[in-house]
Each structure stands twice: as C-alpha cells, then as structure tokens.
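User: Can you help me understand a structure? I only have the sequence.
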Amino acid sequence: MNETLKTIAERYSCRDYEDTPLTDEQVATLVDAALAAPSAMNRQPWHITMVTDKALIDDLDRAALEVLRDREDTSTYERIRSRGGKVLYNAPAMMLVSADGSEFASMDSGILSQNVALAAHCMGLGNVICAMAGIPFKDDDTDGWKKRFGVPVGYDFAIAILLGTARSGKDPHELETDKVTYR
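Assistant: Let's start by predicting it. Here is the structure, written out as tokens:
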C-alpha cells in the first residue's frame, strides 16, 4: 500500500498523552507541515500559535472544563469527567489555528489541521484535532485568551491540534461505507 494511504488508514485520534515534550525539530516539522497546506486562492487565512508551554495548555484546559461545567446541559462535562477530567487530554503541545473569518477560512483551517495530523502520525506522534480547545475563546473572551495565545486582531479560534507521545494506542475508526452514494 502507498505510504500516504497507509498513514491515512492508520491514523487515530489520540486522547492519552505522555508528559514528554516535543523536540525543537518536531515542532519545526509540524509547523512546516501546517504552512504547506493549500488554501483557497492561496490566501492562507490562518495564524498559527504553536504552544509548548504546558502550563498555558493546562490553564486553557481548566477554563474549558469550567465553561462545560457551568452549561445548562452538563452531559459533555460529565463525559469528560468520567474519562479523567481533561478536555485537552494532558497533551504536552498544541497547535492553535486562528482564522480571519474570510469565506473559505474554516475549510482552509481544516485542511491545515489534517496536514498536521497526518504529519504527526508519520512522525510517530499521537494527535487529535480538537475543537473543544476553543470553548474558552467563545463569547466576550473576558479572560484574554486571544492575547495569551497571540491571536492577531481580526482573527478568531478556528481549530486546534493536540500533539505528543501517545500513552496508549487504539485502532482507527471503522469506515462507514453506508455514508457513500455512488451515481
């Protein structure tokens, strides 16, 4: 099987990380993979914040859990608490992608995140594309999360990719072929 197709088939969403920090070389490789992502009309509507400050990741994790706890529907909060109480799964690194809100920015940010996820898997790193990292960035951002993460003015949280050495592995999800129509 082609190596790229093998990577796509084997990649899974890691939700359990070792405390081991990424090396400078790993960080640089992942940033390069992100910047290599195609975008509509090559506008590159993103800004990348590569976060290796574990204390900052943990602060964001606590804030996200507090928001979930205070919601009227606490089912997500309860699910996360039952799995160890970590929204960001103790990841030692996170690539936070913010976007400028232009027409294709959401799609382009998704493409970037898939580049990073596949690159990380090829490098032997666990990863998960994580929208829940954006929970504290919602509403009025009274705690200054954008500033703390270096999000430029005019940009908003788009997606995050949690990265690190997987503590445990798992099989990729089953393919749901009933979600395909051929004509």
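Now, to help you interpret it: Strands lie at 46-51, 93-99, 126-130, 156-164. The CA atoms of residues 31 and 141 lie 26 Å apart. Let me know which part you'd like to focus on.
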